[in-house]
Amino acid sequence: MAALTPISRKPLSFVLPILAAAGALVGLFFGTANGSGLIGIVAGAVLVAGLGYAYVEVLKNEKTALWISLAVMVVLGIYLAGIPGIVLGLFFGWFFWWFTHWLFEGRYRARLLPYLTPGQVLWHYSFRVICGLIFFFLVSPLVPVIWLSFNAQDFFTFTPEMLRFDPAGYSLKHYQDFFTNGEWQRSFKNSLIIAPIATVISVSLGTLAAIGLSQSHVPFRRAIMAILISPMIVPLIISATGMFFFYSKIGNFMEGTMGLDKNLVGYFKVVLAHAVLGIPFVIITVTATLVGFDRSLTRAAANMGANPVTTFFKVQMPLILPGVISGGLFAFITSFDEVVVVLFVGSAGQKTLPWQMFTGLREQISPTILAVATILVVISIALLTTVELLRRRSERLRGMSPA
């Protein structure tokens, strides 16, 4: 493995304190899990700093250091966590080996501008560490949920077989229950009916509102914008209460005067309520996309004889389409995951998937809820990944990033 020249190497007085701090951070978690966070901090700092010193001053060979690091960490992982500790030992063994040489050989500056000061380099990596810790803080609660969804038993706790990674402790029975149980499938179908229709309404009205508010001659633009995005700001329980009184009168009129079916009216009310919740997301994303839109393109189309509708669909829409789709995805996620409003506005015939999960938590606690939550997490990740890809495409189309 190629290394940089000795000139770029850093003194141990720089490397060892950073290694000790990293080891103390990891030791804090393991020590807390085993009864003493303070002992974990001290042991982690001493162990990692000692290994780092041995890598660069005693062994002086990266490949040999790697194998020794893996062996030490695997043995320590087995001692602290049993068989699952092997995976953790392999990961931390590789990480601290890589981290030591990354610091000692000065490789952390390889992709940075050469004129950056030490303080700027420190902030560059500190910012990334802070973002990583925030990401871990947000994502870590999902790990037990996903893990427990594969429990072979009907419990919300980890069984000894699961902790030993025994195949007998894992099963797909809760996912099978979701796809075969009539109640779950009925609520899932309701969500698949309500969310797309509400998304279409949100995208249509939200896009038109964003385009109108982007015009400089529209009076009271800021006040109108504040009103349109207020469903994002007002507490959901208050919005749900207001929607209950508003849509109940509309429902009575549609059932009593127009003679429409009660179940159909229920779907109508829930769709409109979810559309109201989704419109602010569409307005914000489309408005952000319109910031970089070149108005001269629409004027050129008008000079060539195109009417406003043709100009919108042929010139403006292709350029703002990534923002429109992004807003639509956010509106879909909002409708698909929403439970408070549908409890107030809907009825048993419009029971959505989140409503069924909420009912299951109150009446019959079943690990099937965890399987459904895992499916929703996967769907959300897929949709948010799509949003990020569309955002990057939008930046390329507007010349804000290289192709």
Could you write a compact summary of the structure shown?
This protein has 403 residues and is mainly alpha-helical. The protein is built from 18 helices and no strands.
Instruction: Tell me the number of structural domains.
Output: 2
**H-E order:** HHHHHHHHHHHHHHHHHH
Distance between the termini: 33 Å
Task: Using the coordinates shown, work out and report the CATH topology of the largest domain.
Answer: MetI-like fold
Helix content: over 70%
The tally of helices reads 18
SS strand fraction: under 5%
**Would you state the CATH class of the largest domain?**
Mainly Alpha
**Biggest pleated-sheet summary:** none
Overall radius of gyration? 28 Å
Write the CATH architecture name of the largest domain: Orthogonal Bundle
Mean pLDDT: 85
* Category by helix and strand content: mainly alpha
**How many β-strand runs?**
0
Overall body shape: flat
The low-confidence parts are 1-7
The CATH fourth-level homologous superfamily of the largest domain: MetI-like
